[in-house]
Each structure stands twice: as structure tokens, then as C-alpha cells.
Amino acid sequence: MGKELPLARSEEEGQSMLLAITSSGEPITAPCLRDQGTEGDNFAEVSEGGETEDTETKSKSSSKVKRANARTFKKARRRRDNKDRKSHRGDERAHKPARRSAKELGITFPGSYCDELETVPHHWNEIDIVSGGLLLRCVLCFDYVWLPLFIQESHHLNNLMKRYGRTEGYCRYLDRHREAKVLVAKMQDLRVLETKVDDKRKFAKIVDEILSDKEYDRKEI
């Protein structure tokens, strides 16, 4: 067996070298790869001028640019979506038919009495609950009225009637409740027609047509 080779370390040209002595006494050197880092291990890169580039700062600035671009894109997309929604709403309103107001439908507030002399008071009886209110019919004169159920809404109706008068204020309030407005208009029209149409079959046909009309308040153009 040959002699064991003593090992030693030496610095040559700034690199760690592995130094071995052969049996003839001649030294053999080889670079020590264990002490060298692989490419990409260092966080800083050296530029051509010898200056070190801070890759961490560069990465942060790049991330900021990406986030800024993302925010700008999201804002632009939101503005575009809002514009599209407004455009669609405008199209929907353009296709909606014009509606007649309660005043145009001839709705009147019946007051407290059945007759003009105010000698016979109404005796109201509940018929149905419609649009958050009660549809009432007088058992004496068969007139109809719709009144809100809730106290706050009743105060609002009362204030409108004090400000604009009984019928005008009542019509203004009904304009905000289309279902109730249409129903009251139909009932009051049928009450008037009942006194004018003697033929019961004809009247029954008119009743069916009016009650089934879903566009009763549509304004003719």
C-alpha cells in the first residue's frame, strides 16, 4: 500500500484549494468545490461596472408596479361595468310604458259620509289586504277606499291630505303604491258602471275585462 497522503488547505489566487502531497514529494492542488457557492445562491448581482445590484429593492419596486397596474385595471373595469349597468337601466326605462296617475284615473277620496248632505256616515267593511294596506267597502253605498295599515304611513297620508286637499293628497299617496292605485281605480269605475249598465250579462262581461286587465293604468300615446 502506498503512503497516506497528508491533506492541507491553502489559499491560491483568492480561492480555497485542496493541497495534497504525493509519494514523490510533488504537491498537487485542486479547487475545493465545497467552499464555492453555486450560481444564484447570492441575493445580490454584480453589474458590469463592478457595482452590486440590490435585487430585493428591484423586486419590491416591481411588485409595487404590478399592484398599481392591477388597481388601475380594476378601477377601469368597475367604471366600465357601472357605465354598462346605467346604459341597461336606461334601456329598460325607455321600454317601460307610461302610467296614468291616480288623478288621471279619476280616483276620489270618499270622505266620511255616503251622501253629499253628510247625513249618512260610511260603514266600512274590510275586503282584502293589498300592498301593505286594507281595501275597505262601505256596506251602505258600496264605495271603496284603500288605507295604509301602519301608523307611520297613515301619518304620511294625513300630511299629504292636509297639504294638498283630501282627493289630491290621497292620489299623490296612491301614486307610490301602484297595486293599490289600480285596484281602487277598478273598484270605483265598476261602482259607477253598475249604475249605468242595466244588462247584467253585459255588466258581468265588463267586470271580467276590467278585473283581468293588467295594464289598466297604462297611458295611451
Estimated share of beta-strand residues? 15-25%
Helix-strand string: EEEEEHEEEHHHH
Distance from first to last alpha carbon: 118 Å
Low-confidence stretches: 3-23, 37-47
Q: Which structural class matches the secondary elements?
A: alpha+beta
Number of strands: 8
The count of helical stretches stands at 5
Largest sheet: 3 strands, antiparallel
Radius of gyration: 46 Å
Summarize the SSE layout with pairings.
Blueprint: E1 7-12, E2 15-21, E3 27-31, E4 45-46, E5 52-53, H1 55-95, E6 124-130, E7 133-138, E8 144-148, H2 151-164, H3 166-174, H4 178-194, H5 200-211
Antiparallel strand pairs: 1-2, 2-3, 4-5, 6-7, 7-8
Helix pairs in contact: 2-3, 4-5
Describe the 3D structure.
Helix 2 (151-164) packs across helix 3 and helix 4 packs antiparallel against helix 5. Among the domains are: 1-32, no CATH class; 66-96; 124-211, no CATH class. The chain has helices spanning 55-95, 151-164, 166-174, 178-194, 200-211, and strands at 7-12, 15-21, 27-31, 45-46, 52-53, 124-130, 133-138, 144-148. The radius of gyration is 46 Å and the shape is extended. 42% of the residues lie in helices and 18% in strands. The chain has 221 residues and is of the alpha+beta class. Strand 7 (133-138) and strand 8 form a beta hairpin. It starts with 6 loop residues before the first strand and ends in a 10-residue tail after the last helix.
